[in-house]
Structure formats: structure tokens, C-alpha cells
Amino acid sequence: MTGRPGGRPLVPAYLATGGVARPSRPRLERLSVLAAAGQPAPAVLSAAQQALLEVLGEGALTLVESAALLRLPVSAVRVLAADLIDQDLVAARAPIPPADRFDPDLLKRVADGLRALKH
Asked: Model-level pTM?
């Protein structure tokens, strides 16, 4: 099948998900970390599900990284990942929360202390 200039194939996303529009796990976020569970894949998986398992076989990836490697929309990979999680073929964990902001007063005191040691 020929692609368009942007590089994406002309296959609609709903074909990759078998017509499913919503994931079975609504808590699956864009930065959720996915990893293959290490179980053998059954023969009944779709080509897109097999491709996702292959990508995850090389190591853990976020949902958006997986989508980029598969060249599929994030929404489609979210549906595929949720289905594989339901089959215990993929494990997912919540994204790592951003670190708390640094206290500027603490940083100033540390810098002052380092300057005092220098003299």
C-alpha cells in the first residue's frame, strides 16, 4: 500500500484495532510504561498486536514511544495495549510523577555554604 507524504500508511487506525474505538482500560495514559510479560503470544493475535509485542520484547517503552515505533496513532496503540494487558501478555505501570520543585531557599543556602568552604 502506498503511503502519503507524511510517511504514515493509508490504513485507518480502526483497522489496526479491529474496529474497537475505546480501550478497556481508561487509566492507560500516554506516558504509561509498557513491558512484555514474557509469555508466548497466542496465534490469534492481530498483526498490530504482534507488532506491539515485538517492539516491547526489546524492553519497556512508554505508550507514545510504542506508537511512534509502530507508526500508529496513540489512541490505536492504547486500545491494542489494553487488549494485551487484559490477556496478561503486557504489563503496564503508571507514569513516573514529575519530581517536586526545588526549594530556591535551600539551593541558595547550599550555594552560600559552598562559597564559604571555598574561602
From this structure: 0.69
